[in-house]
Amino acid sequence: FNLNHTLIHHTKPINTLKISSDGTTLISGADDGTLAVWDLGSGKRIQIISVIFNGPVSAATWTPLAANSLAETFIFGCSDGSLHMYH
Description:
Elements: E1 14-19, E2 25-30, E3 34-39, E4 45-50, E5 57-64, E6 72-78, E7 83-86
Antiparallel strand pairs: 1-2, 2-3, 3-4, 5-6, 6-7
């Protein structure tokens, strides 16, 4: 194995990492109250979602938008019990 990319953003421990079903996108959530969306091909950040008022990002998952759909969305949860869905 060879190192392809070092993905740098989070300033506190990372709690969750999830790769999309097509293998192209990664989401990472951390104690810094942010969720980062990464392009795995280029190693570049696509988006940063800040939820610092909701506390650390503790869980995340990818899910289809609808039954029999190839399009995906992601949902993540924070330590205050809130859930956030993006698509």
